[in-house]
């Protein structure tokens, strides 16, 4: 293993340190491969490898001679930058649902792509659907592929809905919101988007109907159960599980990591989708839950049990935003006292 490769693997498996809590959890996982070329083409996110390490025929001959495993061969086929899981991976992903497409492309340039297949809107490494066929990334042409920006927004919306529901459970609030229903619709019995007219013409109206059907005796267990099913489905789709891998050269003692299936000699697989699912599972199961910053709206790990009915701020906004909001509240109180006195 080269020194550079060893340092990246160490960064990937170390335990998060420091006094400030982070939303993302560090755990033993493979690094994230980032294609060297990622750009937007209309409503598509196109990604490409600028060169291959060797031709398919050479790869197959080398494999037949027993030089390394299928995984090591597949991993070395395409040249990609590899980054460890780090701060911002989940926090930024849940913000992508309603942002311009260029923001999504920027995220993919930092953390990699999903590798969605054309048939199922799932990462191509997902388990077989029963027909025994292996899926390939959409548009795969031996050099690259593409994925719909809308697929990114769909999964970002689902991840955000999971975290919003987890956040309100901390406040003993068992009422669904329109944003949560939109992201988790299939898990609460909503199969279609709201019609343009009528009493169910918005997600908020649908949420109100569902909340009227909620039995108080069944909560919060029903909501917890919904989140568990949604996150379990995410983990299943990403097919991330404990695996034992050697280094890129197929030498030395292997490492135990959480990773998707091995890269094949036909196409790469990307672990980003499954890693996001792991981060979601940590957020749902965390004792302190998830908080959303009162200033910027981003999710963060509070690191402690939060008081209800007061504002909370992430590390980036911190005391500056807290002082600004306190000054605004003070001015509002003075105006109210002045108007009541007159």
Structure description:
The protein is an alpha+beta fold. The protein has one domain. Helix content is 40%, strand content 10%. The chain has eleven helices and nine strands. It has helices at 3-13, 56-64, 70-75, 89-93, 101-111, 149-169, 178-184, 203-213, 221-238, 272-285, 318-341, and strands at 32-34, 37-41, 44-48, 81-83, 144-148, 241-245, 255-259, 291-292, 299-300. The strands form four sheets. Strands 2-3-5 form a three-stranded antiparallel β-sheet. A hairpin with a 2-residue loop joins strand 2 (37-41) and strand 3 (44-48). Helix 6 packs across helix 7 (178-184) and helix 7 crosses helix 8 (203-213). The protein is globular and about 80 Å long.
Attribute tags:
three-stranded antiparallel β-sheet, two-stranded antiparallel sheet, 342 residues, 9 strands, single chain, alpha+beta, disordered N terminus
Gist?
The protein is an alpha+beta fold and 342 residues long.
């Amino acid at each position: 293993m080269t020194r550079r490769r060893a340092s990246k693997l160490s960064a990937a498996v170390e335990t998060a340190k420091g006094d400030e809590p982070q939303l993302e959890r560090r755990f033993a996982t493979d690094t994230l491969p980032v294609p060297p070329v990622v750009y937007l083409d209309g409503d598509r996110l196109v990604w490409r490898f600028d060169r291959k390490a060797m031709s398919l025929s050479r790869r197959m001959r080398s494999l037949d001679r027993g030089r390394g495993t299928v995984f090591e061969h597949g991993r070395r086929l395409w040249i990609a930058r590899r980054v460890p899981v780090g701060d911002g991976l989940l926090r930024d992903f849940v913000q992508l649902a309603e942002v311009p497409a260029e923001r999504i492309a920027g995220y993919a340039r930092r953390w990699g792509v999903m590798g969605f297949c054309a048939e199922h809107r799932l990462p191509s490494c997902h388990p077989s659907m029963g027909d025994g066929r292996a899926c390939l990334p959409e548009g795969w042409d031996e050099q690259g592929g593409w994925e719909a920006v809308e697929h990114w927004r769909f999964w970002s919306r689902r991840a955000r809905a999971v975290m919003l529901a987890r956040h309100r459970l901390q406040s003993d609030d068992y009422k669904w919101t329109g944003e949560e229903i939109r992201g988790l619709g299939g898990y609460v019995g909503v199969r279609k988007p709201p019609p343009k007219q009528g009493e169910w013409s918005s997600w908020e109206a649908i949420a109100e109907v569902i909340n009227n059907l909620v039995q108080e005796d069944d909560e919060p267990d029903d909501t917890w159960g919904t989140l568990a099913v949604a996150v379990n489905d995410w983990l299943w789709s990403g097919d991330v599980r404990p695996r034992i891998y050697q280094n890129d050269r197929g030498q030395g003692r292997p490492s135990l990591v959480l990773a998707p299936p091995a890269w094949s000699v036909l196409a790469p697989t990307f672990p980003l989708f499954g890693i996001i699912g792991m981060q979601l599972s940590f957020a749902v199961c965390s004792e302190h839950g998830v908080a959303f910053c009162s200033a910027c709206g981003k999710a963060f790990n509070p690191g402690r049990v939060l008081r209800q009915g007061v504002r909370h701020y992430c590390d980036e906004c911190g005391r500056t935003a807290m002082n600004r909001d306190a000054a605004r509240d003070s001015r509002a109180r003075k105006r109210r006292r002045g108007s009541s006195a007159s």
